[in-house]
Design a protein that fits this description.
Blueprint lengths: L4 H10 L1 E4 L1 H19 L5 E6 L3 H8 L7 E8 L11 E4 L9 E9 L3 H12 L4 E10 L11 E6 L4 E2 L15 E3 L1
Parallel strand pairs: 2-3, 2-5, 5-6, 6-7
Antiparallel strand pairs: 1-9, 3-4, 8-9
Helix pairs in contact: 2-3
Bound molecules: 1-O-pyrophosphono-5-O-phosphono-alpha-D-ribofuranose and hypoxanthine (HPA).
The site of 1-O-pyrophosphono-5-O-phosphono-alpha-D-ribofuranose has 17 residues, from strand 5 and helix 4.
Length: 180
């Protein structure tokens, strides 16, 4: 049965805040500095992975003061659950990525299947390069061979939510990061 807002409130009350809003802001500043150093003259396309990538991508974008284009893909394998399944591809990208340098932005790198699959897909569409930028990297053995080039924060192997990441589709709007 789908979780209610009361369930979501109860989960938050029991959760531990593992990164404050300030820590998230500082991590985004560091990521933006690194991305600016590498991409300021490369006319990249920033591709946001919906839905969780929306919040980190939006906050990163306002810190990237150089020419870039924005696109998105919508792909999901958790669908409001805490266990991942097969990746369902729903939409995007819309721009031609032929010869372009792509910054693929998501909220979290966990088992790695999502970013690995999307990265392969974008390279198959002709992208010159695809680098992954994630707000959070979970410290676990990946299911596939992928790592992010740009990482904001690390978390241990717990289900986390906030700043894009959901608890049963709730709590993406929290400014800190919480663990069950
Ligand atoms: O590294 P993985 O184990 O593949 O997990 C990471 C992915 O899982 C979440 O997406 P989800 O499928 O839950 O969709 P959402 O973005 O709508 O939350 C998250 O946003 C990442 O895209
Ligand atoms: O720990 C997580 N939290 C939220 N979404 C996720 N998608 C993969 N892992 C997670």
């Amino acid at each position: 049965m789908a979780a209610t807002s009361e369930d979501a409130k109860a989960a938050l009350a029991d959760a531990e805040r593992i990164h404050s809003a300030t820590a998230v802001d500082e991590a985004l500043d560091r990521m933006a500095d690194d991305l600016t150093r590498h991409y300021r003259d490369r006319d990249p396309v920033l591709v946001c992975v919906m839905t969780g990538g929306l919040i980190p991508a939006g906050h990163l974008l306002t810190r990237l003061e150089f020419p870039l284009q924005l696109d998105y893909v919508h792909a999901t394998r958790y669908q409001g659950s805490t266990e991942g399944g097969d990746l369902e591809w729903m939409a995007g990208p819309n721009l031609s990525l032929e010869g372009r340098d792509v910054i693929l932005v998501d909220d979290i790198l966990d088992g790695g299947w999502t970013l690995a699959t999307i990265k392969d897909h974008l390279l198959a569409q002709g992208a010159a390069s695809v680098a992954c930028a994630v707000l959070v990297s979970k410290r676990i053995a990946r299911q596939v061979d992928i790592e992010a080039e740009y990482v904001g924060l690390e978390v241990e192997d717990r289900y986390v939510f906030g700043f894009g990441m959901d608890y049963e589709e709730y709590h993406r709007n929290l400014r800190g990061i919480y663990a069950l």
